[in-house]
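Table S7 (text form). Paired inputs.
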Amino acid sequence: MKPYRVPQLAKKYVEYDMIQQHTEMPAFPDNRTRLLFVFLNRNAQGLHASEDELYALVTSLVQMGLDTHDMIDTLSGIRSPEEMRSRQLKVLAGDYFSSRFYQLLALAGRIEAISKLSDAVCEVNAGKMSLYWEMKNFRLDGAQYLSQMVRFKQELFLSFTSLIAEQDQEVWKQLLNEFSLCDTLMEEWEKRAEPDKSRFGYMFWHIYGNGDQHEQLQLSEGGAKTEVWRKLVLKYKAEDAILDKLRTAVTHIRQVLSDEQNTGIEEFECMLEPFLKLLHSSHPVVREG
């Protein structure tokens, strides 16, 4: 197995001083990228030289582009010059990351791969429009929201399933789904302490789906002030729900990795470390009062 160096290759495309100084960027999708690289590499006989690395790199860049655009605020109102610069840089950076995958694949003559990723981008964008409509009309619960977010994280990477060895495809899809779920839950956990960020995330929809009519009305009308929000988080154990789902996903991954039929993929165990650290050290930060 050749070394995994996609994050190092991606640096020259995603690390620019102006972007890093003036706006926040999404995290590199390392888990999913590593999974794709390893499973493509296991089918080396079915690929041309360095295709495993190329496909993993361009997929990570497209994902970065989509994730960057998702960070653009859509709120109306007057913004400061710094906020305007940050917003404009997110737009430009997202477009730049996305355009790079066309260039790299075109230079390598991999036109079919361009089509695969382009189709996946269309699927993700169509799915997001549908999700936003459901959110606007309050037709979601926590499970539905989480399912869609996980789908968006893995759609691009699933484009290359046909290039993975047939005997590996089932375990590939299982691991991709579970790691995508872990990444999503980690993001939801990290924004839990910021009401403005979390109120249309998993915790919001978990509470909305379990709440009574009065509580749902408070949430839908934006009337859940900070104190009310904290009480709802405690009442419906929203933080615990995130941790419970993360714990279950980690268990599923370990079960897959321990299967005797899946020898040679034990290296993925190290990818669980951030999630295990969270599970071992976490405790709810929301308190009444």
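Next pair, protein 2 of 2.
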Amino acid sequence: MKRQLILEDGTIFKGNGFGSETGVIGEVVFNTGMTGYQEILSDPSYCGQIVTLTYPLVGNYGINRDDFESITPAFSAFVVKEVADFPSNWRSKWSLDEYLKMKNIPGIAGVDTRKLTKIIRQHGTLKGAICSVDENPLEIMERMRATKLRSDQVKQVSTKSAYASPGRGNRIVLVDFGMKHGILRELNERNCDVIVVPYHTTAEEILALCPDGIMLSNGPGDPKDVPEAIEMIRGILGKVPMFGICLGHQLFALACGADTAKMKFGHRGSNHPVKDLKTGKVAITSQNHGYTVEEDSISGTELEVTHVALNDQTIEGLAHKTASAFTVQYHPEASPGPEDANPLFDEFISLVEKAKQGDANYAKA
């Protein structure tokens, strides 16, 4: 089954198809992780994207039942150099090809992913189309240029109704903008009583749940496409401790008066060094985002920069100067990737406990 990947700049890559035979159009991005493809394909933040994996061999340990970050994959297609036909791992249940067929998602192998990555790094993120080699590239390019990429990705991947993941500890309302299960898993491990709510839940509805803390999850797309979430954050800020991750970090910045912008090709991988400006320590982090908080926009707000990316000096963490709230651009839950930043969840719980103690002291007074 021969396929082609056509970029909007006219570049064509030909290769062998695997997974579904469906044709797709999407934003072509690349991930530099050496492993973790199952977590990548199930990360809702890749909604609508054609994901290129730079590591040359993919699928060698198969797909298992345990390492998913969502129930339904939201990405559009996989682009790889080589796909393993016969995976070897005691947990493997399906090959990558079998799983993508089940989910009706196409893939293309035999692509020079180094060349493709260099094109994206040079020109920025591009639209692309995966289709049969029998289709006319000029017609596909016309269709691609006429296709407007969707701006409702968060709506597509967010939960449709609230649900509880009960615990005996602090009540945390987790706002789902495209939540990875890893975030919920970390809160569960700390015995939190978690209520997951849809992205459009209002501040009043969240406060009515009597939370001890608010978690803003990761998610796909442009944060400015979710104005209702920005309004919700403004309504809660200063009333309940808050912790934001990835898209949650960007939405928090917008709610506090800062600005965001689309990056040339984004950060996607599990090997990004981030410096904590307070301690001077560097963590290797898992990242997946195409937008960033603009440094110049922080001036005049109540925000301070807490972390920066060492590769390009972009903002990777923020804290509010007066409210109990902080955010990071990277993924402390990893999945996939290193767990250097995992203690941030403990820092959040500590912030929640301090706020509750403050309330208790106020009540006694």
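The longest helix spans residues 343-364.
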